[in-house]
Structure formats: C-alpha cells, structure tokens
Design a protein that fits this description.
- There is one protein chain.
- The chain is mainly β.
- About 5% of the residues lie in helices and about 40% in strands.
- The chain has a six-stranded mixed sheet with strand order 4-3-2-1-6-5, with no helix packed on it.
- A hairpin with a 4-residue loop joins strand 1 and strand 2.
- The radius of gyration is 15 Å and the shape is globular.
C-alpha cells in the first residue's frame, strides 16, 4: 500500500480575491484579484484578472490578465506568479 500523502488546498473565491499577487521575477506586488476566467465545460480556471490601480466604481478599470499556468504558488496570504510579458507592467 502506498502511503504518500497528497496535499489538497481549497480556497473560496472571497479568500482568493483578498490575496495580494506578487511577481516572482520583479519581486513586486501587482495587485489583488479582480475577476477570474473560467472554462465552464471542464470547470477549470483559465486566468486571473488584476486591476492596475484601485478599482473604480464608474469608469474603465485597466486589467492585467495572467494565465493560470503562470501561477507558481497560492499561499495563505499571497499568490506568487511569473509574468514574462512586459505589457503587463505598462
């Protein structure tokens, strides 16, 4: 019998939205999660959206889309991501 233990972390959407997102390459905070893109056919998250500045109630928000594959680690307080595209920092 295999006695490997598998770590399963479950997070609610509200808990993830309050976490800070940090880029591992630049070592800087990018913001907090504003929204998610989900594939409803296979129930998978495709990407996360961050707001560059504080969210505006009225007007356009500048969003940064980070593919789910670029998420390195979801911790208890922060989400570590890898951002290769410099467009995200404009």
């Amino acid at each position: 019998m295999n006695e490997e233990t598998t770590e399963i972390n479950l997070f609610s959407l509200n808990a993830i939205r309050d976490m800070q997102v940090i880029d591992i390459n630049e070592g800087r905070m990018l913001g907090t999660i504003y929204d998610l893109k989900i594939n409803c056919d296979n129930y998978k998250i495709l990407s996360i959206f961050l707001v560059k500045d504080k969210p505006k109630i009225f007007g356009n928000n500048d969003l940064i889309e980070i593919p789910w594959e670029n998420i390195i680690k979801i911790g208890t307080d922060v989400i570590i991501v890898k951002c290769d595209d410099k467009i995200m920092f404009e």
